[in-house]
Known about the structure:
The protein is α+β, with helices and mostly antiparallel strands. It has a domain at 7-37. Helices cover 22% and strands 18% of the residues. The chain has a two-stranded antiparallel sheet. The longest helix is centred in the N-terminal third of the chain and has 10 residues, at 9-18.
Amino acid sequence: xxxxxxxxxxxxxxxxxxxxxxxxxxxxxxxxxxxxxxxxxxxxx
Length: 45
């Protein structure tokens, strides 16, 4: 079952591919069947 607007494995993989060669490979990680990107908060806390 999928929900409208829900992240999918395929959708997050396509998002990751858009940044190939721009973002460092370590910027994305695969968790619970989804590709997640790192989020910077702009602080050093």
